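Hi V.,

You were right to ask for the full record rather than a summary. Here it is.
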Amino acid sequence: MKKAITLFLISILSLTALIAEDVYVDYVDGYLEIKDGSSWMELWIGDAIGDSDILKLGQGSYAELSYGADRIKLSRPGVYELSSLLGARKNMNSSGVGALLAGKFKTLLIDDSTKTEAAVGGVRAAEAESVSVDWMTSETAEIIKEGRSSLQLGVVDKALDLFNEALDLSADEYEESEAYYYIGLAHAMSGNYGAALENLDFADFDTDSEYYSELYILKGQLLVESSAYKEAVKWLNSFKFTNARAAEVDDKQQLYLMLAVAQSNSGMKSDAVKTLDKLISLDRNSEAAKAAVDFKNSL
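Predicted structure:
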């Protein structure tokens, strides 16, 4: 009997070991620390951490944790419970929300393919009557166009050089924000979320701008995927959902989905349910709505 119980316990422990994924520090730029009693101990690339550990990311730091084939990114300073991070990731993946958010950067780049040209004849011209026709062929517009082409080809370093050149040559706040947006997008596509957010923090567009909703989607996704949920709630709640120019259903559903994820992981589950209901009511047959239903049922 004792032998049977022993074998049973061994099998249970073996199964648990197979189910549990080891978590490792995969990348650190700056300082990542682990709570050790009443003090903090610095972590290094390759260190293993337990799912009950508490981590602290330093100011201006960026870190990536890996477990199995998945990855957790941290880009905002603060204290994080690893169990909460893993739980949030599991819920996102099981409901299909994670798959919908993944790869959005490339979609944003495709959607942005005519942004500079559209702004030339639209918003920018309307914002300032004194803008000359020469602006239509401005050097910054051409540089950004070339940078976009490089980014679409996957030549990120060249794209970043061009976007930074456009930033140096920007003639006004709009062109400056446009350059910061593309610098942020390039860093996001290369996986450098910390640098992406640092640059996007400087971008600012009016509600009638071509870039308004794209900036919210890009920065919102980076914050959510970086587990900066409270900041994501604040950021996404500031979006003007009633603005006519930003009223495309796809964009609104994407933003509502990210907001709901951020709310649910900030202890605001009742708010998350309300947000998901708004999302579903926009288009019940969309992929976002289907994921929202599954995510709502998991809360």
